[in-house]
Amino acid sequence: MADPAPASLPPKRPLRQDGVLKADLCIIGAGSGGLSVAAGAVQMGASVVLIEKGEMGGDCLNTGCVPSKALIAAAHAAQAVRDGQRFGVHAAEPEIRFEEVHAHVHGVIGAIAPHDSVERFERLGVHVIKAAARFLDRDTVEAGGETILARRFVIATGSRAAVPPIPGLSDAGYLTNESVFELRERPEHLIIVGGGPIGIEMAQSFRRLGSRVTVIETFGILARDEPEAVEVVRAALLRDGVTLLEKVGISDVRRDGPVVTVTLDGDSAVGRCVAGSHLLVAAGRRPNVENLGLDAAGVAFAPKGITVDARLRTSNRRIFAIGDVSGGPQFTHIAGYHAGIVIRNALFGLPAKVDYTALPWVTYADPELAHAGLTEAQARKGGHDVQILTWSFALNDRAQAERATEGLAKVVLGRKGRILGATIVGPRAGELIGTWALAIASRLRIGAVASAVLPYPTLSEISKRAAGSYYTPKLFGSATRRVVGFVQRFLR
């Protein structure tokens, strides 16, 4: 988030005329995207009204990115104790005090919350209304008894966990990301419906914190990622003791006291049952479009979200939609990216458009799986002349020193060495993928990464080594040998 504006530049505030609040910009939703727009716009001189009916910071701070990564950190700490013997450091099985894990997770949320608070944004000059919002017409919103008239509106209401229509699920009870981080006692056996990034991250974390875990996935886990990289993560999950049931459906769910039973469906599992103590649904997200008065505002929407153009404008050109609710990629960093697009459009009238060419994402398993740009399958489907480069973490000296040699870097190239995409699965892959995201966004060729001078020994060298392998056939081929032999005849 941007820093507070200098005191010498007092913020422009909304005006109240005839009982109506008038502002340059009205934002509905104080999650990552909405807060970014509000902070940026008010510090650039716009008057801003921000409306939020729930917790400031939205899903990311309270029930998503922040608590999940805090839980993952606790799971990493537990696993580090178990893995110490690789380095000659021996310890007993760690004692997991789940109440203290819960306190750690919520302590992290509490440490970040002031940055997203009502008080901070009001100090910036934003008029914050804590209430539900709905459009009265194409240019008016009502919230908390206030009527707001604005030049432009931004809908940033995010998404929530999608609940599949499984017979008995509602009666049996289940957890989602909105409730799983409230657990104060460790689940004995956690059944997870969904093998996407959220399901996989939670599966490994709870397993490392001492729970039995079973993942049920209709297709294959992490279906959007490169198959070679997924295999590395799958092997790690199985080694940790996570049970993976892939290409399996669910026919019904029932609860008998403390036991929840899931009946499986599918060619290999029809009639088979899995019994556990808790059930977590992690089967995708649904946009929050209900009760906003979108019809009154002339805003078109569909089950996947609000319909927007490349400038994130809705069918009502004075209203923008950003983040998960806009039906695009559902990542916090995309909501922040959308905020910049909207600010350029709404405040400066510039025709800024979204471009997902270099879109990165990370699954924070151990090892991490990170990706940017096109996968190999996408590149081939797009008609590119594809060349693939790979490099193993086993050939990286820092990875060897840390005994973290599982994984690889895979780079997808087009004609003349243009970088189209990259995947890294391995230690701190989420930190390493930034090099490739920048290279793709800048339309660089592979030589730019191959010629970089990187510190030794670091994990980042895997990118340079993968890039350098592009030149290996020519550099060490017969033609080079002939040239070197010829030149050496004349050198003194």
TrEMBL record:
SUPFAM superfamilies: FAD/NAD(P)-binding domain (SSF51905), FAD/NAD-linked reductases, dimerisation (C-terminal) domain (SSF55424). Residues 24-338 form the FAD/NAD(P)-binding domain. Transmembrane segments: none annotated. InterPro entries: FAD/NAD-bd_sf (IPR036188), FAD/NAD-binding_dom (IPR023753), FAD/NAD-linked_Rdtase_dimer_sf (IPR016156), Pyr_nuc-diS_OxRdtase (IPR001100), Pyr_nucl-diS_OxRdtase_dimer (IPR004099), Pyr_OxRdtase_I_AS (IPR012999). It is an enzyme of class 1 (oxidoreductase). It comes from the Bacteria. Gene3D superfamilies: 3.30.390.30, FAD/NAD(P)-binding domain. Residues 360-466 form the Pyridine nucleotide-disulphide oxidoreductase dimerisation domain. GO terms for molecular function: oxidoreductase activity. Its EC number is 1.-.-.-. Belongs to the class-I pyridine nucleotide-disulfide oxidoreductase family. This is Dihydrolipoyl dehydrogenase family protein. It comes from Bosea massiliensis.
